[in-house]
Amino acid sequence: MTDLDTFLDAKYIKIFVAVAETKSMSAVAKQFGISQSAVSQTIRSLEEQLRVTLLSRNRRPLALTRQGEIFYDYSLKILALQNETIGAVRDLSGNNVARLHIAMANSCAETIAPKLVSEFGELASQWKISSGITPDHIELFLERRVDMVITIDEMLEGEQDIDRFELMREPYVLALPANYKNEIDIEAIARKLPLIRYGLNSRTGRRIEQQLNRMNVSPPRWIEIESVIGQMKIINSGKGFGLTTPLCFTNLAEIYSNVRLVPLPRASFSRQINLLARKKEDHVIAAKIANSCQKILRNESVASLVERFDWLSDSFKFDFSNTR
What we know:
The protein is α/β, with parallel strands linked by helices. It is 48% helix and 20% strand. The chain folds into three domains: 3-91, Arc Repressor Mutant, subunit A; 97-168 and 272-314, D-Maltodextrin-Binding Protein, domain 2, CATH 3.40.190; 173-263, Periplasmic binding protein-like II (D-Maltodextrin-Binding Protein, domain 2), CATH 3.40.190. The protein contains 13 helices and twelve strands. Strands 4-3-5-12-6 form a five-stranded mixed beta sheet, with helices on both faces. The protein has a three-stranded antiparallel beta sheet with strand order 10-7-11.
């Protein structure tokens, strides 16, 4: 056993903690079922590794030196971390985990996350939900820095050992000022209003740009903004139009009452929302979360949108044969 092995050996640390607390090597020897000389040698091995004196041996009962008090405090933290680590690993074999980190697109985080944690908070002792752009989340998932990703379209298609739970397919739609009464055609709209578009670093922004190119639509005036709220504020004020999805709009429907959603008049397109997880590690919990997310999307997010825009009632798809 090397010096480093000695220092990190949990049994050595437990023996030291016991000596610090009982102030008696004989009591600790009895507690651990070893000889008193073995207890003494354990303490000396730690002192040699640390190059300090942990115990003042010329006092009765034994007392910690100043260095010993510091080492005692950190020893308690080491043992606590060890117990937490063991608990976290063991939890993975059951239906709950100690810690769960899910990354989501911004529109999903704002819509799904609060209700998901409220309904399934007991699945994990510690939750972390990150929002942002999909490419960053995929990179974090591949680096094993997040456990699951709620993402858009066919990201990581064909990757082995990944569960893909399909949650919802939704259409892209036009977002117009409520008082816009002219022809519903993108080219005609673009001649009157600037396009308020998402940043092209987002997957949604790139999808919209690709679709406009396919339609041979090139708005002469546009404003790029990396914020759904910012986009809707401008449209709500009557100063522009945009392409978005109902889910991106759902949390803003009551705030921006002067925004009207209408179907794309031609070349309709949609996006699919999926949950990705590691097949061999998180299948049971991922299935529960996917089922809950789908219910939240169907019964709350979509239901509230259909109340305002009834033409959306047949625009969503939920019936998938999970999982792939």
